[in-house]
Amino acid sequence: MKVVKKIDKDVRLKKVYRTILIGMILVLFGGMIFLTQYQNQNQWVDRFNPFMKMNIGYATLPTSVTYNGGKKYREDGKAQQFPDPYKNIWVADDPFGEGMLLDFQGGQAPEGKNYALVQHKGIYVKRISFISWKSIPGVYRDIMSEEYYEVPSMKE
């Protein structure tokens, strides 16, 4: 009788293990499909996506920044002022002109350094560094504009 109960238990567990294994395989394939289909659409997906690589690019930034939703900077210092994010900034990822439009926070660029070295993974921007025109490699300078031109949004 013990042998029959053990065999019965093993058969039931086999079905449970098979169901769990099939479920895990479906979750794995579903996750892979999700990560490959939603690249460059959501910064949180791009941030943790193991199928994407971190890129470094260069961008021309506007010389002036607005604060608190489009207002000018006030010197009085009574209220906190937060810089608005840079929107629709073209970041050149390679010397052949490949790149993408990105939105990121950065604040006011220092005088004479209205260019950025941008480290990003898809649309997730990890960090930026303000740099001068002369510190941009020549092959990138050839495809970039020295003056900032607003790029219309392609997201809408």
Automatic annotation (TrEMBL):
<keyword id="KW-0472">Membrane</keyword>
<protein>
    <submittedName>
        <fullName>Uncharacterized protein</fullName>
    </submittedName>
</protein>
<keyword id="KW-1133">Transmembrane helix</keyword>
<feature type="transmembrane region" description="Helical">
    <location>
        <begin position="20"/>
        <end position="38"/>
    </location>
</feature>
<keyword id="KW-0812">Transmembrane</keyword>
